[in-house]
């Protein structure tokens, strides 16, 4: 126990979860919103579509909010370092919203030209959310107390949060690829399969991060 | 499991009998016409076949279509925008189909002409009157604008313009140019000019001009005009009006009022006419469109001296029927030949052929890409997985119920007029039911609403099997579900994680099984083994390890698979590819871990619902009296938001698991969709 009150670290974790993830979501939603404003100026009927696309990069902020609520109200008894790590992991991974915003902006642009591509653009735009989901996953695993190893109860837990969090930034790269793939698919609908393969590549690094986080939590090296 | 088998139909038909054949085929909608025009460029074919032009009646049809479209434009302009309202959108009226049957284009054209002249007889006079009124209104408004600047002058406007000896012009001048203008006008006219100025008027924002009237001798008309233009004088074009500006202004305002009244009554008349005729004219529009398609169909056929050659694709099961249609319609003056597809597979159209219960899910397959002709149709395999994953990710009985209700409205109501709404509604209804099932299983009713507001902990009652965020009666630290490799599965999250990974491995295994059987059909055994077989072995090895606890089996399998990946890479392109090949195993691992999103999204729904409840409770307790109202608003909006966000998220993530992880094992897609030669009838029936 580092502090008198273990919730001190938890509170910092909650703050980081909401703060950093909110930063990512804000930028991501802003990027999509800019594209949306242009689209709506051309065709006011596209307002609903713009809102749907702008909702995508907002989920990261919601995950951050969710983890903060979980830390503050539900899993108060989790190990203190785990609470901090959960917050950092979710927060940093939430920056993937920037990439998702880029992809969603491209998706919205493509849909403005051709309604028929809505589903495909959605699928591409949601790819860079995987990173945030991994962040949320690790946060939950840290909090629910499945693991009781030193990897969760000591400062080592921070390693897990940092691994999944920073690897989650690969979402930005994935968003850029996905935006390109949306453009390609808009031109040739058959390009979707290959575009997906390319767009999923940057996820490899998020998986590395997730794996290392799980290994740390399992306490493999202690 | 494969797209419908196709047959090629080739028919030679006597010229006189082609029209009825095309008509009948168009009504049946069973075939896709094959465009012969490229084939006819081949000298071997062009020796005895010439390309056929579109049918001649096409031109008449086109000119009638223009007339009919104009009539529809007029109707839509005059009809008062009747509000459809929410109930109109949610329950659209299906137009009653009018039964019309014609045997030739001549009959259709004369029918259209008859109806159209009937409509025109009633509509053209009021329409002309309306145009005149609008014209007059524009003139009067322009006049009103002009004379309002001259309100100061007590001059009869009839003196403006050329008289027998003089020339008078009115207009606006910039105040700063006025002095110069006066002197230059005096110069060019030798003093025979009179300029009357009025009080300054505002013509635009912050722009002031001075109205002036210039009077001179007729012989100076041109030089005065030139001088005025130079100074930036804005001429007010007023002619053929009598009376002072004030009188004219009042007069035109009066006339405008009466025009307004006349316009209103004429619009009412036209509106009534549009109500009476719109449907009739829409019918005309539709039959003309159908006729146009038929006329254009001719250009896809080939022509000899006395016959036409028609080629078409038809699904095997309809081939007999198509042959019958051609033979009866041509009264026997035709030769029909049916053959197996004689084109490369990429050119054979693909028609998905699923049972009615599965058919709406074709939408999801086609969103990715329809299969190639000889590829497997994955629709049947998407359906169970999609519903299962959707249900787990949304997991809330109340949300599920809402979704199912929305789905039913979409499916049964809006689906009447839109195929897309029908398909989506069907999918959402089933997804909603799946969500209800998993919601009950995990005790999710608006998150933990019951605990927060009624003090009932469903997880301690045994009504819910799993608690996504903790322990329940059935699964807790005291009662672990099972123990795997040193980790106890003793709480909700772990149970769902285990379920997710197992479901993922099973899902991938199904994909790999399909993939290996496809590979075995097309490629060598080695390809099948390196493509899918070794992954299946890896999965089996891991499963065995889990059950026996012997880590050796999995370890050996992993090393073996890495080695095989490197060999595969080396065979494809040398050392570098071999090194990259070693990375394939992380790709496989990524595929499996990707299914962990089932847990994360399941928790996200429940957790956010809980967050909404907690906040509502805090608000309700903290603020006296109106706190309860704020809490209710918070609950309604919060849950609506959570429902929409997670409902959408579950849909796309469920799709993603299929498109990326599942399809990656066996599916490529990219076939050409079967597009039937079919009369689109919304307002008529044959």
Automatic annotation (TrEMBL), chain A:
<comment type="similarity">
    <text>Belongs to the V-ATPase proteolipid subunit family.</text>
</comment>
<feature type="transmembrane region" description="Helical">
    <location>
        <begin position="132"/>
        <end position="148"/>
    </location>
</feature>
<dbReference type="Pfam" id="PF00137">
    <property type="entry name" value="ATP-synt_C"/>
</dbReference>
<keyword id="KW-0472">Membrane</keyword>
<keyword id="KW-0406">Ion transport</keyword>
<dbReference type="GO" id="GO:0033179">
    <property type="term" value="C:proton-transporting V-type ATPase, V0 domain"/>
</dbReference>
<feature type="transmembrane region" description="Helical">
    <location>
        <begin position="90"/>
        <end position="112"/>
    </location>
</feature>
<feature type="domain" description="V-ATPase proteolipid subunit C-like">
    <location>
        <begin position="12"/>
        <end position="71"/>
    </location>
</feature>
<feature type="transmembrane region" description="Helical">
    <location>
        <begin position="196"/>
        <end position="220"/>
    </location>
</feature>
<keyword id="KW-0813">Transport</keyword>
<dbReference type="InterPro" id="IPR000245">
    <property type="entry name" value="ATPase_proteolipid_csu"/>
</dbReference>
<dbReference type="InterPro" id="IPR038662">
    <property type="entry name" value="ATP_synth_F0_csu_sf"/>
</dbReference>
<dbReference type="GO" id="GO:0046961">
    <property type="term" value="F:proton-transporting ATPase activity, rotational mechanism"/>
</dbReference>
<dbReference type="InterPro" id="IPR035921">
    <property type="entry name" value="F/V-ATP_Csub_sf"/>
</dbReference>
<keyword id="KW-1133">Transmembrane helix</keyword>
<feature type="domain" description="V-ATPase proteolipid subunit C-like">
    <location>
        <begin position="84"/>
        <end position="142"/>
    </location>
</feature>
<protein>
    <submittedName>
        <fullName>H+transporting two-sector ATPase C subunit</fullName>
    </submittedName>
</protein>
<feature type="transmembrane region" description="Helical">
    <location>
        <begin position="60"/>
        <end position="78"/>
    </location>
</feature>
<keyword id="KW-0812">Transmembrane</keyword>
<feature type="domain" description="V-ATPase proteolipid subunit C-like">
    <location>
        <begin position="158"/>
        <end position="216"/>
    </location>
</feature>
<dbReference type="InterPro" id="IPR002379">
    <property type="entry name" value="ATPase_proteolipid_c-like_dom"/>
</dbReference>
<feature type="transmembrane region" description="Helical">
    <location>
        <begin position="155"/>
        <end position="176"/>
    </location>
</feature>
